[in-house]
Predict the 3D structure of the following.
Amino acid sequence: MSNDTGRRSGETPLTPIDWEQENSTDRTVPWRFLLFAAGLVGLWLLYRYTNSHGIGVVYSWRPTKLTWLFRVSLLALVCFALPPLVRNTRRNRRYWERFRSNRLAVVSLVSLILFAILAMVGPALLGRPATDPTVARQPPLLFSSKLGLVTSTCVGPTVNGFCHGSWTYPLGTSTLGQDMVLLVLSGMHVSFQVGVITAVFMIPLATVVGLVAGYSGGTVDTVLMRYVDVQQSVPAFVVYLIFVFLAGPSLFAFVVVFGLLNWGSIARLVRSEAIQRREEEYVEAARSAGVSRWTLLRKHLLPNVSNTVLIGTTQKIPQLILLETALTFIGIGDVVATRVVRRHDCDRLVGQFLHGADQGVVDLDDTRRRARLHRRRLEHRRRYVARRVRPAG
């Protein structure tokens, strides 16, 4: 009788796994952490070099604390997010076949890629928007404005007292003479920074807290979730307002505060998913086979809760970008870093638009006020004339 007795024909034999060896190898430092540490050392050397020579690097016109934090966040994404995506080519090919069948999803992906490329490369190639009052308030291409609204000269053609837009400034200029194309690219750059940095903060914190709480249960779950309750009871928005009151607006403080204090809802989603997954048969089988807790969390639970983390993060990032824009618009954001149009600038632009469209529209309040004053003057004059010509006796 052969050793294959009892097996079905064509069935491959099962390969035994030495879980003690697997658990011991899991305690070694992964190469991604080593690569991340080497990248941090390289960024630190680059920081020392730029500070000692007083120069900037290609990516940013002026390296600031936010710029260096953004570079560290990009390094973290490259070291920890890209390897799992490119490791399993067969799975990626299967996902891509399903993904490209949805045209709307493909268009959205292309739009996000273009946004990321323009946000990263645009400011470095085209530079910072310069202030030139001589070309302030230029109209966009295919639009025109009354010539009196342009402070000095009209860059485009002038027809019948109106200044028309030109390809020199396709989106026009601001009240300070800044090219709106460069301002848009600058705003995209800031939005991209906010999204990347806050995501790098929120994803590991929410994943670790939610995964450990959901799998461990008991006292660990209670302590971690009570901390999340306390954190959510004091919103990150309030903490940022306190910081603005004490130290002034700062985009660096915004991304740090919201990145560290705005992940509670994502952690709750991860915890709920982990509670469901820990009762699955494959988790029980791995636990019965002697898999260590760290290996079970990393290889069995973490891949199955990653979708929940990504969905929660993609919902948070647009909210934070809109919140940062709104705070800057009302004057409590970092206007120097964002270079967006503030509220009084917007009011000025609206007033200029209304003034330019005032060709056939009369200001009723001013007209009524002038009419009342004119009637009052006529009445005084009529009474004065009546007293002068009144007959004697």
About this structure: The beta strands are 144-146, 158-159, 162-164. Residues 382 and 388 are 10 Å apart (CA to CA). Confidence is low (pLDDT under 50) at residues 1-19, 21-25, 341-364.
